[in-house]
Design a protein that fits this description.
Strand content of chain A: 15-25%
Strand order of the largest sheet of chain B: 2-3-6
Number of strands of chain B: 7
Mean pLDDT of chain A: 86
Radius of gyration of chain A: 23 Å
Number of strands of chain A: 7
Number of helices of chain A: 3
Shape of chain A: rod-shaped
Order of helices and strands of chain A: HHHEEEEEEE
Strand order of the largest sheet of chain A: 3-4-7
Distance between the termini of chain A: 79 Å
Low-confidence stretches of chain A: none
Strand content of chain B: 15-25%
Radius of gyration of chain B: 24 Å
Largest interface: A-B, 32 and 35 residues
Mean pLDDT of chain B: 87
Helix content of chain B: 40-55%
Number of domains of chain A: 1
Oligomer: heterodimer
Order of helices and strands of chain B: HEHEEEEEE
Helix content of chain A: 40-55%
Largest sheet of chain B: 3 strands, antiparallel
Distance between the termini of chain B: 86 Å
Number of helices of chain B: 2
Chain lengths: 138, 153
């Protein structure tokens, strides 16, 4: 009986710690993932609007659209990391719509790794904006 | 004697493991809630930025520009440009005054972009406080109508 009792705390602690790490992972890592996703979405929304507002049917307009996207100061990962690998695509007629994709936002996982989660989780976002808004807010 | 000794072990084990567990739980609650609030702020600021970008910029006088900014702050804080006096903020305890709106003007004096951010907002997450200032922030290009001679209704 005494022999069996000796390992109990060890087992109980390891089970409890694993569960604890999973719970911490859900709160901490998922929290960061959702924030990164939201930040990326807000960025692509603004970037698509910036790109679309510069389009005028010419290649020069497309260049200005790309510059406008590159100039946006928004960041992700709680406002600390610049967006990388941002893609800007345009409608073939160069004046209807712009699509911005931020494909490369890799959130580093802290706690969920300990219970079998991945090391990084990618949260891409994309937005499309029309170059001529049909309705403006007054 | 042995029995007594073992009971002491259990007490120490409980004290040590409970300390670790409570610290972990407190941290989970604190960060979980703070991240939740930060995420809500990102959404609110994004909505405010979008509204500001599409809103008519009326600039007959300084008071019209200020009224426009108040409407944008209201969108961030309440999701409504003219909230009821008893409106509930979208994010816990967020006040209109904690939303900052900066217009970025081009050489000709027309607004080219708008920057909306949160200043001096404190999250009270039970076990600790976090203060956000200048974050989250968004910058939207101005795509609305520029009306330098009009007044806010």
């Amino acid at each position: 009986m005494r022999v069996r009792q000796k390992g109990f705390v060890l087992i109980a602690m390891s089970v409890a710690m694993t569960l604890m790490l999973a719970v911490m992972g859900l709160a901490f890592d998922f929290g960061r993932i959702y924030i990164a996703r939201n930040e990326a979405q807000v960025f692509t929304d603004a970037a698509a609007m910036a790109a679309a507002s510069k389009m005028d049917g010419t290649d020069e307009g497309l260049n200005r659209a790309r510059q406008a996207v590159a100039k946006l100061p928004m960041r992700w990962n709680l406002g600390t990391k610049a967006f990388t690998g941002v893609m800007v695509e345009f409608s073939p007629d160069k004046q209807s719509w712009a699509r911005v994709t931020a494909p490369d936002n890799q959130v580093e996982i802290t706690f969920l790794r300990a219970v079998g989660g991945p090391a990084v989780f990618t949260v891409p976002a994309h937005s499309v904006a029309a170059a001529r808004p049909v309705r403006l807010v007054e | 004697m042995r029995k007594k000794n073992q009971r002491g072990h259990a007490m120490i084990e409980l004290a040590v493991s409970a300390g670790v567990m409570v610290a972990c739980l407190a941290g989970t609650v604190q960060f979980g809630y703070t991240f939740y609030i930060y995420n809500e702020l990102v959404t609110a600021v994004g909505n405010g930025g979008r509204y500001a970008a599409m809103r008519t910029y009326r600039a007959a006088g300084q008071s019209d520009i200020e009224k426009g900014k108040v409407a944008i702050r209201n969108i961030v804080a309440f999701g409504d440009s003219r909230p009821a006096p008893d409106a509930v903020p979208q994010v816990a305890n967020l006040k209109r005054e904690q939303v900052r709106v900066d217009w970025i003007m081009d050489e000709s004096g027309k607004p080219s972009a708008v920057n909306v951010s949160i200043v001096d907002y404190t999250v009270d997450a039970a076990f600790g406080m976090f203060r956000f200032t200048g974050k989250p922030a968004v910058e939207y290009p101005f795509v609305g109508r520029f009306a330098p001679a009009e007044s806010e209704p």
